Amino acid sequence: MAMIDSTFDLFYAMTLPPVEAVAYFKQKGLQVSENWYDLLGEVHSKVFTVANCAKLDVLQSIRDEVKKAMDGNVSFSEFKKNLTPTLQAKGWWGKAIDQSTGEITKMYPGTSRPVQYGSPWRLKLIYDQNLQTAYMAGRRARQLERVDSFPYWQRIEIMDARTRPSHRVLSGLTFRYDDPYWTHFYPPDAFKCRGRVRALSGDQVSSEKVSVSNSAGRLDFVDVPVSKTNPNAGTVKVARYMLSSPSTPKHLRQYAQTDPGWTHAPGEGWQPNLKSYDTDLVEQYRKAFKEGGKK
Question: What is the pTM of this model?
Fold first, then answer.
């Protein structure tokens, strides 16, 4: 299995985001949302939202700071420093508890737990996920432009103590760019996923003795609960890839699957501003996008 140095820092890799990443983020509209699962799948390519954020002015403030982070390589410390007082002033901070009475003013559906609004860990999640998803959408767009020379894509994971076992097993898997696998498993395919995709030429595949997989007969979809804490939230389909051989008895088969809400490749359904590129590159991108991103 392929692996990379455990000292690899994802933020360092994103300090110079491709122009497609910035464009991808900027084109997103705003949409308030009570629950993260209200908006799933490809809709995330079109809107910017934060769970339990029903105030448009709050959502706008968060989006503005994320945009600054992408434009100017703002560190998380600075992002938090800039945004925290704004969210506190707008009343979107801490738990949904009336400070004068101790009464819970809003609960998570189906629970007695107060909703958590802004907090350092939530800001960290917002910061990481938005920058990473935008970066990966831009990276995928660039890789689609180069599929004539680099038609094979390989999943790479950071192999350290934080890497979940279900992602470790994906590291090193290699498919052609137009294999349906990438429509669903192009990272990030889960919260806090740190995986990335390496594009390979045919010569690299041969010289490195890379085994190229095919998802035919191995890729399907299963229903999983949307929420672990709210059974009334229903179910959602996630993509599942069979790691075992199709000849393996069903009760012994091993699978990897995406997290709820992460079943579509970042930027799926989105295109960069093609007017900014030369005609030959535009045609190459459209060809690759049609074959690889719209299968």
Answer: 0.72
Classify residue 101 as exposed, middle or buried by CB count within 10 Å of its CB (0-12, 13-18, 19+).
exposed
- Rounded to the nearest angstrom, the gap between the alpha carbon of residue 132 and the centroid of all alpha carbons in its chain is 7
Question: Which residue segment(s) compose the domain that 204 sits in?
Answer: 150-293
Do 199 and 178 form a contact (C-beta atoms < 8 A)?
no
How far is residue 50's CA from residue 58's CA, in Å, rounded to a whole number? 10
Question: Is 144 within a domain?
Answer: no
Indicate if 28 and 106 belong to the same structural domain.
yes
Answer whether residue 109 is part of any domain: yes
Structural contact between residues 73 and 165, judged by C-beta atoms closer than 8 angstroms: no
Q: Tokens in use for 77?
A: 């410390």
Strand ordering across the sheet containing 219-225: 219-225, 235-242, 255-257
Total domain count for the chain?
2
The amino acid occupying position 249 is P
Asked whether residue 136 is assigned to any structural domain, the reply reads no
Rounded CA Rg of the chain:
20
The answer to whether residue 182 sits within a structural domain is yes
Per-residue pLDDT of the chain (295 residues; tens, 9 = 90+): 333 333 333 333 334 445 666 666 666 655 545 555 554 555 455 556 566 565 677 788 888 888 888 777 788 899 899 899 998 888 888 888 888 888 888 887 778 888 888 888 888 888 888 888 888 888 888 898 899 999 999 999 988 888 888 899 999 999 999 999 999 999 988 888 889 999 999 999 999 999 999 999 999 999 988 777 677 777 888 899 999 888 889 889 999 999 887 877 776 655 555 565 556 656 655 665 555 444 3
The residues that bridge with 256 in the sheet, in sequence order, are 241
